[in-house]
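Page 47, continued from p. 46.
Same chain as before, 181 aa.
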Amino acid sequence: MIGHHGRVTLNIREAVMDLERHASEQGWDQPPRVYALVPTAELARREPALASMLGLDASADPAELTPVEQEPLPEGMPLEEALGRMAWPDAVAGCALVMERLVVRGSDETLDPPRGGTGDWAASQDGSEEVRMVAGVLREGGRHAALRMRAHDSDDQVLNGPDLVPALTSALELTLQDDEG
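Result:
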């Protein structure tokens, strides 16, 4: 799909859904993970050794994105503060975050579960449900998110759309903005 300025609009939906599938394979009770989203063909050209290890090819579709996992977020630091300290090099087309939260049914309130023993803690929270959120944004403005409820994990129901978790995608967008601008 051609975006503004004649550039190819990168496939943020596909990248988010791939990350959701990857997170699902790893199971629940995982720490938050941050990914740089890099155009696959560009990554293959700039980092041939890494591309070879990942089985990537410079002839990839120009709209294809490769998620590159970043260092773990600082232990104990609030997510908003950790995101506020992030900066991305120009070669990064976007970024994504995978995280688990408790959602209080009937509201937009979320609770940050403690590490370890999350299942027992979640069961003790009245009217709440554990969810895994995957949100991704692009510098050019594309955004997409996926949401999987732990209660529906086995039936593979994944909600997804561009406006699913607007506060999270907006926070991620801020990490892509130039400080000078």
